[in-house]
Design goal:
Elements (H helix, E strand, L loop, with lengths): L6 H69 L3 E14 L2 E13 L4 E9 L2 H13 L3 E2 L12 E5 L2 E7 L6 E2 L2 H10 L4 E5 L5 H14 L3 H8 L3 H4 L5
Parallel strand pairs: 7-8
Antiparallel strand pairs: 1-2, 2-3, 3-4, 5-6, 6-8
């Protein structure tokens, strides 16, 4: 004798059958999902490892010349001083990029000096890049017998204005800020320096560099004009 069900019982039976079919389907699919997830995670780990290896190799390639240059630079007797480290921000489409800017002065205290400026995401890297930039922009400074300036000069760089004036033996370097650092590393032992314009250390350092680059000694001027030094100085003997 066939069993009879009411409408409510038939609906309940159909829902139970559908739930059983869905559970069986999930049981069949779950192993494949687990395998796919494991494979995806493994592939992601391999990609991250490759990226790390590529980053390390790139850093080694980039740092090798700088390390060699730094060793040669130290052997030549140059000294470096950090004038300023500032946190700077660059506004881009996705937001703001934070980095650090370093201003470094390098010199041998014997007539050679340079100023460098560069930025990076880390302070140490910014200083290293600034040192490399300064080594690329070294200048020769003409010094008198008293290790002072050959003559007075007023140099300008953008909003910065610097006055440089020679001094007698035993005076020392009377200057402040970035001007003093540049003069000391240039080998100036006696001289006056005064910042007359902006107080920006970078601009004042570069203004000092421009002033030192523009100075000339009597011998250099006599060679340029092709006249004796005595005649240039107004001497008749």
């Amino acid at each position: 004798m066939a069993a009879t069900f009411t409408a409510g019982q038939a609906v309940l039976l159909d829902s139970r059958r559908q739930a059983a079919v869905t559970a069986q389907a999930r049981l069949r699919v779950q192993p494949f999902q687990a395998v796919y997830a494991n494979a995806t995670q493994h592939r992601r780990g391999e990609l991250q490892a490759q990226q790390r290896r590529a980053t390390v190799a790139r850093a080694a390639v980039l740092d090798a010349p700088e390390a060699e240059a730094e060793s040669e630079f130290e052997e030549e007797g140059f000294e470096e001083r950090v004038v300023q480290v500032r946190r700077v921000t660059k506004v881009v489409k996705g937001g703001k990029q934070l980095s650090f800017r370093a201003v470094v002065v390098v010199g041998d205290s014997n007539g050679t000096v340079g100023v460098g400026c560069d930025s990076a995401k880390e302070v140490a890297q910014a200083v290293r890049k600034a040192v490399t930039d300064a080594k690329r922009n070294l200048i020769s400074v003409p010094l008198s017998r008293s290790n002072s300036f050959p003559h007075r000069f007023e140099a300008e760089f953008k909003a910065a204005k610097v006055m440089l004036r020679p001094a007698a033996e035993g005076t020392g370097v009377i200057a402040g800020g970035a001007v003093r650092v540049v003069l000391e590393l240039a080998g100036v032992k006696n001289g006056f320096g005064k910042q007359l314009g902006s107080g920006n250390p970078l601009n004042n350092a570069r203004a000092t560099i421009e002033g030192l680059r523009s100075m000339r000694t009597f011998s250099q001027i006599s060679a340029m004009r092709d006249i004796p030094v005595a005649e240039l100085m107004g001497r008749q003997w």
